Amino acid sequence: MSDPRPRAIASLPELRAAIAALRRAGKRIGFVPTMGALHEGHLSLVRASKAECAATAVSIYVNPRQFGPNEDFSKYPRTLEADLELLAGCGADLVFTPQDADVYPPGFASWVEVGAVAEPLEGQFRPGHFRGVATVVLKLFNLVQPDAAYFGRKDYQQAAVIRRMVADLHVPVEIRVCPTVREPDGLAMSSRNRYLSPSARQRALVLWKSLERAGEMVAEGERDAEKILREMRRIILAAEDARIDYVAIVDPDTLQPVETVQKSALAILAVKIENTRLIDNRMLGESGE
Ligand code: AMP
Fold first, then answer.
1. What is the pLDDT of residue 183?
2. To the nearest whole percent, how much of the chain has pLDDT over 90?
3. CB of 146 closer than 6 A to ligand 1?
4. Which of 125, 141, 151, 285 pairs as cysteine with 159 (C-beta 3.0–4.6 A)?
5. The whole model's pTM is what?
6. Atom number in ligand 1 closest to CA 182
7. What domains are there in the chain, each with its CATH number?
8. Does the beta carbon of 180 lie inside 6 Å of ligand 1?
9. In ligand 1, which atom is closest to the CA atom of 154?
10. Do 268 and 156 meet the contact criterion of CB atoms below 8 Å apart?
């Protein structure tokens, strides 16, 4: 049996009243920002919040300002009814589903621009993406006023950007980053996986296979990043129609490329399969998964 459906709140005054009531009751508020089309990855964040917080708020908002002009904003899956059912099943208390006009009031002109950590990788291939993400996440933090907020390691660079923003701007929110939830065969769960045809879904496994192979090579003693990267590219490009945006081995803190895998490094990639852009990553070395 599911819990009753959580309250879906679209209006800002209603949200403010609901948050004020939770605060008056002295409840610690956990927050999970999402774009909806929910899956187990999102639900794992809700469960992590519930384990630490008396109240859990989830936002569902497909933020137009983090999509580039040729990206999938208009076709991004929107499945609100199913999302609310799933959230009821894991006991979320409040679901915030704001409207564009409320998030971006007339005359809107203020942005959050995070520096170095937002520049490589996704920053190169999706110009303006992290500016949109950082801006909307700060807005959501200001509206929901959570004590803690939960993000997935699957979007590794995004979590790094949010951490940087929170530290730099003294935002009073604890940031938690939770493990990537995968399908049984290793594919990282993603709302975008539903774009894949059955055969592309199979080919998409090359992302995880290449990351696993990188982990194995490091465990076997390989330290030369370029050798590992060559092998990763070979595995990925064996899939018909796979196109690599980037495959990189980077310092887990700075996200700058490393030549040699020392104690730990992060393998991270973005690959298009059948025009669907997928991202994934894996720690290598001592802190490997
Ligand atoms: P999205 O709806 O794609 O914006 O994702 C919302 C949050 O869920 C982000 O913090 C993501 O990192 C996280 N997330 C997405 N997929 C996964 C996954 N497979 N495992 C863990 N967290 C995830």
1. 98
2. 94
3. no
4. 151
5. 0.98
6. 19
7. 7-178 (3.40.50.620), 191-283 (3.30.1300.10)
8. yes
9. 12
10. yes
Task: Examine the residue annotation and report whether 39 is marked as an active-site residue of this protein.
Answer: no
Write a three-state SS string for the chain.
Answer: CCCCCCEEECCHHHHHHHHHHHHHCCCCEEEEEECCCCCHHHHHHHHHHHHHCCEEEEEECCCHHHCCCCCCCCCCCCCHHHHHHHHHHCCCCEEECCCHHHHCCCCCCCCCCCCHHHCCCHHHHCCCHHHHHHHHHHHHHHHHCCCEEEEEHHHHHHHHHHHHHHHHCCCCCEEEEECCCECCCCCECCHHHHHCCHHHHHHCHHHHHHHHHHHHHHHCCCCEHHHHHHHHHHHHHCCCCCEEEEEEEECCCCCCECCECCCEEEEEEEEEECCEEEEEEEEEECCCC
Please report, in angstroms and rounded to a whole number, the separation of the first and last CA atoms in the chain. 34
Q: What pLDDT, in 10s, does the model give residues 177-209?
A: 999 999 999 999 999 999 999 999 999 999 999
Q: Is the beta carbon of 188 within 6 A of some atom in ligand 1?
A: yes
CA 91 / ligand 1 centre spacing (Å): 18
In this predicted structure, the answer to whether residue 7 has a pLDDT above a threshold of 90 is no
Q: What is the pLDDT of residue 6?
A: 84
> What's the 32 CA to ligand 1 centre distance in angstroms?
9
Pocket test for ligand 1, best of 34, 35, 42, 276 (most atoms within 8 A of CB): 42
